[in-house]
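Reader question, answered in our methods column.
A reader sent in the components of a multi-part assembly and asked whether the whole thing could be modeled at once rather than chain by chain. We filled in our standard form and ran it. Here is what they sent:
COMPLEX SIZE: two components
ENTRIES:
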Amino acid sequence: MTVYLPIAELSVNIFIILGMGAAVGFLSGMFGVGGGFLITPLLIFYNIPPVVAVATGANQVVASSISGAITHFRRGTIDIKLGTVLLCGGLVGATVGLWIFSLLRRIGQLDLVISLAYVLLLGTVGSLMLWESINALRRAAKNETVTLKRPGHHNWVHRLPLKMRFKKSKIYLSVIPVAVLGFCIGILTSVMGVGGGFIMVPAMIYLLRIPTNVVVGTSLFQIIFVSAYTVIVQASANYTVDIVLAFVLMIAGVIGAQYGVRVGQRLRGEQLRALLALLVLAVGIRLAIELVIPPKEVYSIVSAGLGF
Amino acid sequence: MRIVSRLVFACLLLSAPLAAQAEPVDFTEKLDIGISTDEIAITSDFRGADLTIFGAIDGADPGLLAQGKYNIVVALEGPKENTTVRKKERVFGIWINTNSMTFEMVPESYSLSSTRDIETIAPPGDMNNMGIGVDHMPLTPVGFVGDGSNLTEFRDAFRRLRETTGIYQRDPGGVQFISSSLFKASLRLPADVPNGSHIVRAYLFRDGLFVAAKALELRVVKTGLEQAITTAAHQQPFLYGLVAVLLAVVTGWLASVVFRRD
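And here is the structure of the entire assembly that came back:
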């Protein structure tokens, strides 16, 4: 059964889109990530114009992070104050990102930069996570106790000025690194269509030393708003949000996520992290191969419309 | 109104190069064509469409008709846009778009149907003048192209890409005579046919010489929900974005309610 996407202006097989949404939803539920870093490349592999894929991916991220954030809100694991500081940086970052997006699109290097950014980010984050989780698995095998957070241990981040007290997280921290982190993630959201949870969560844990229990909820809280902002601005500036595509993706995504969560609960934390690391690395490698091997077709056509 | 004037302009354009060529011979034949619809609707399950165009040759010479000396070419030209072809090259080990060339106002889709291979209908020079066929349509670069040495390369790439994706197509047996002077042309519109004003052009050739041409407009439009969504996205973009976000919020919220387990 085909469905016509009014903004992407092409007909697609609805079952393939549903399958993609469900698969990404399953993985995002299992690992507790938004799944934007998977959905955007998948849509591009399926010939959706990258400009539409990025904007529509952000819309799908809104749906999946809302459903996750509500659960965290009920459990009281969101630090609204910390999330708001992240968000302020995020909105500025998203605005800068949109400007970069339009510029790259104009000079015809958008696909290259999106691919390169994905390869770099996924490669780095995937390798770090894999390294960390393999060590954790080995320690677990030897029955050693693992402490992720070393309380009292301060790094350079904690010497910065403009400190603020975040009651829920029980930390006293400068707003500068928080806002800068939000800013960087904001850029990624608008250029790559990702929520950025897979970068934000480790950065909050390892760099800012925010307690693990509030990290996921708080990052989801800020991702909702930055993605929503990106969707509205992309829709206003580039007319590239395909609501039909987004809707099909989110329906399948939220259902898939529920089953993912169930499977995720049966696995141990470090096993999950190792699997997620492998997944992240696989996507990164797949994109890297595409950049390096000689393409089948060196020419491409760009119409004044959606392509680039 | 704008469409009509564009059509008139198109016809003028069409007849301009032909006038000079057609003058020495005085043809008595006239060409008439008709389509069953002047509008193709893109619905949510649109998978492409087949278009049949009927036509008649008025005042044809029965002897020449019997010998098969009359040939007909029917082309469906999509809306025209400036189109850029980019070329990737290896830079520091990765493949990057380096060169590009933009062609002026080329059709976004093109379907050609003829009584036989158009190369055997008239000399290539004539086809070039009239811009009939994928290999003969004018591809004029915009702006500075240097010494033009890579012009052929980009033009060939453009034609090849458009034909491999099926957005440009040709059917050398698509026009058939149903009676001595009545003919039927079948054209295929691909699933990704662009929206907008398309032009059906029919050309009549007698023994390798161009005789007459006719043009008709065909609109390809999105309908119902698809149209409403596109209009909203372009005319109320902010509101549209807001609705997209709201949809996501409601979906996410509903999911957390439906699947609530704690």
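What stands out: The radius of gyration of chain A is 19 Å. The longest strand of chain A covers residues 299-303.
Send us your own complexes using the same form.
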